[in-house]
């Protein structure tokens, strides 16, 4: 009978279906390349590049995205703190310290600072000081932005020690007996010395290691400085009234300053000539710039010890690096000589030394036309860039020596400290490289 077989086949198909076995209908097989690939579930790390570019369907966070906090302006903060100190100052000593800190702040941050809260700007001399400080910062800023030479930005600690009038070592008080300070005699004088870290260069107005005198006038707002003197102040803001200048004009002069010299002495060294080693001169300067060598006579800051000091440095450039070195006296000449009671004009005077060193005598030198490429032991002479009708343009008044060519740090006396080439604002410069001694 066919009926039982039909029910048997139907029952068998039902059992196979329950076991998950698919029964394919009979027919030709698909080609291999057309066989569908198995479906895979990919993890997030294995998504294709196309999937990664698809927009996300995740629900966006409703929380606001915090804005990046701007870093506080360090200059503005420091200036604000200093202004609080000025407002709270009750004693003249506090105003003096704030005055030095204010000008150091502008010096380091290359930002002009209004010194009006501590200076009596009704006094023409103090107006000049403010302008000089602005010109100094402008020079340093342009040199820094153009990367023409090194510009120090770090602020170093310094101390302020007040001294009595009898501790002054020059004749300033005698000289000022009839001086009109412009304060109708109501001002009070304070004397002090600024000391810093040995071997570090500080802003020119701090005049580290020098004796300072300031006069202050009481006002309804507190105290204000009406006068500031230190050795070297006359080269900065005392002689002529200064004016602000445009960046383009100053930049053009800076490019001219930092050119390479190209004029040499006419005669080369002989077999018996002694070569100049600037590194020995620079080492001597680093050792004795801040503390004088007792083996040499000291002219004193009132008369100016700058050339006496640089002559000592140049002399040691002809030695073998020993200190003391008594044999160096053999390089002194009748015109260029120092003894226990002082030295000759060529030894102690800026212009006389230049004339002696450039005329082709025993000391042979190269005159440089610019500051680019200055070496250790090179000499720089300066004078004010502003001349009166009776001033001689060849009359230079100060002398310095290069001690660090990379940073162009210079050593000087009167005042006895270090400055940078970037600090030499408002002055004409001439450059000298000792070569050998016949």
Keywords for this structure?
single chain, 438 residues, alpha+beta, seven-stranded antiparallel β-sheet, four-stranded antiparallel β-sheet, 11 helices
Structure in words:
Strands 5, 8, 9, 10, 11, 12 and 13 form a 7-stranded antiparallel sheet that branches. This protein is 29% helix and 17% strand. With 438 residues, it is an alpha+beta fold. The protein folds into 2 domains: 74-252, no CATH class; 259-437, no CATH class. Mean pLDDT is 86; it is low at 6-11 and 23-62.
How are the SSEs placed, and which strands pair?
Blueprint: H1 2-18, H2 49-53, H3 74-88, H4 92-109, H5 124-146, E1 158-163, H6 172-175, E2 188-196, E3 211-219, E4 222-229, H7 247-257, E5 274-275, H8 278-288, H9 306-316, E6 338-339, E7 342-343, H10 345-348, H11 350-358, E8 363-368, E9 379-384, E10 398-404, E11 409-412, E12 417-420, E13 427-437
Antiparallel strand pairs: 1-2, 2-3, 3-4, 5-13, 6-7, 8-13, 9-10, 9-13, 10-11, 11-12
Concise overview:
The chain has helices at 2-18, 49-53, 74-88, 92-109, 124-146, 172-175, 247-257, 278-288, 306-316, 345-348, 350-358, and strands at 158-163, 188-196, 211-219, 222-229, 274-275, 338-339, 342-343, 363-368, 379-384, 398-404, 409-412, 417-420, 427-437.
């Amino acid at each position: 009978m066919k009926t039982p077989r039909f029910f048997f086949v139907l029952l068998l198909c039902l059992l196979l279906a329950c076991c998950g076995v698919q029964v394919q209908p009979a027919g030709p097989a698909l080609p291999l390349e057309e066989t569908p690939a198995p479906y895979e579930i990919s993890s997030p790390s294995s998504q294709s590049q196309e999937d990664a570019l698809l927009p996300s369907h995740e629900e966006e966070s409703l929380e606001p995205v915090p804005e990046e906090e701007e870093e506080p302006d360090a200059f503005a903060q420091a200036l604000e703190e200093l202004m609080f100190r000025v407002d709270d100052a009750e004693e003249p000593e506090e105003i003096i310290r704030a005055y030095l800190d204010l000008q150091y702040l502008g010096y380091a941050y290359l930002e002009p600072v209004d010194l009006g809260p501590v200076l009596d700007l009704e006094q023409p001399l103090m107006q000049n000081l403010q302008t000089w400080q602005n010109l100094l910062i402008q020079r340093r800023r342009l040199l820094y932005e153009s990367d023409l030479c090194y510009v120090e930005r770090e602020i170093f600690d310094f101390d302020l020690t007040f001294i009595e009038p009898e501790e002054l070592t020059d004749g300033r008080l005698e000289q000022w007996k009839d001086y009109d300070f412009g304060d109708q005699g109501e001002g009070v004088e304070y004397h002090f010395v600024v000391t810093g870290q040995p071997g570090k260069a500080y802003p020119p107005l701090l005049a580290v290691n020098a004796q300072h005198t300031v006069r202050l006038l009481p006002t309804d707002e507190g105290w204000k400085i009406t006068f500031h003197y230190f050795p070297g102040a006359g080269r900065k803001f005392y002689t002529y009234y200064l004016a602000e200048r445009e960046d383009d004009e100053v930049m053009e002069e800076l490019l001219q300053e930092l050119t390479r010299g190209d004029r040499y002495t006419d005669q080369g060294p002989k077999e018996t000539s002694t070569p100049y080693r600037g590194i020995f001169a620079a080492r001597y300067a680093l050792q004795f710039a801040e503390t004088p060598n007792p083996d040499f006579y000291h002219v004193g800051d009132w008369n100016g010890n700058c050339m006496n000091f640089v002559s000592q440095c140049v002399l040691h450039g002809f030695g073998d690096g020993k200190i003391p070195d008594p044999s160096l006296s053999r390089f002194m000449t009748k015109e260029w000589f120092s003894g226990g009671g002082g030295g000759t004009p060529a030894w102690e005077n800026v212009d006389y030394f230049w004339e002696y060193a450039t005329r082709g005598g025993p000391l042979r030198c190269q005159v440089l036309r610019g500051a680019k490429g200055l070496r250790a032991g090179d000499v720089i002479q300066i004078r004010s860039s502003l001349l009166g009708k009776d001033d001689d343009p060849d009359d230079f008044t100060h002398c310095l020596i290069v001690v660090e060519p990379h940073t162009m740090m210079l050593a000087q006396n009167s005042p006895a400290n270090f400055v940078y080439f970037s600090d030499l604002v408002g002055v004409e410069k001439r450059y000298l490289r000792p070569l050998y001694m016949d």
